[in-house]
Amino acid sequence: MEKIECIISYAQENLAKENTGHDFTHAERTARLAEKIITEDVLYVEKFIVIASAYLHDVIDDKVATFPAKAQQDLQYFLQEIGCSLQEIEAILEILQNMSFSSEKFFSTNPLSAEGKIVQDADRLDALGAGGILRAAYFSGAHGQVIYDKNKPPQNFHTKEEYRKSTTLINHFYEKLFLLPEMMNTEYGKKEGARQRAFMQEFLTQFYQEWQI
């Protein structure tokens, strides 16, 4: 079995019980979006690193993994077992450790590689548009958040702990999702992100009209 096939199986197994919108189908879409970015922007990068990182990016994330440090150790051992080089393992882990929204916003992370920037954009594109709306609602419901509260305006968080506290589904649009297009690295990411955000803004216009009836 080729390395990438092993990685896909590993991601599928480790994300099988995930129920907040960071499941294996999200990993699959992220990988497809990453390939789309490479093609559309004609980028010359290590494609294996991009696709492997896209499939694995949530496996060690603390939103998904109960014990992130152990999840990282397990992943590193797995990558060694399937024959990844030390350079490949380091490149993948570097992306996974530094690509998240919270890492970029609240910590001094290492600059992402060209491959990492593609994976980061692909992950963020899947948080936008119609699919992004559904994933946000799925995540919000799984964490017991209310849909909307007019007495709770969106927040400007200063720490990861503040960011992870319960808010509302609609606030999440303003606190994170609408910020993503300006944070994109690639031309395709910027263009597609802006288009998807416009759709979400139209959705909110309709939402407010219905909510106030």
From TrEMBL:
Top-rank taxon: Bacteria
Annotated SUPFAM superfamilies: HD-domain/PDEase-like
Domain HD/PDEase: 19-137
SMART domains: HDc
MF (Gene Ontology): hydrolase activity
EC number: 3.1.4.-
Keywords from the UniProt entry: Hydrolase
Record PANTHER family: HD_PDEASE DOMAIN-CONTAINING PROTEIN, SUPERFAMILY HYDROLASE, PUTATIVE (AFU_ORTHOLOGUE AFUA_1G03035)-RELATED
Protein's UniProt name: Metal-dependent phosphohydrolase
Annotated organism of origin: Tetragenococcus muriaticus 3MR10-3
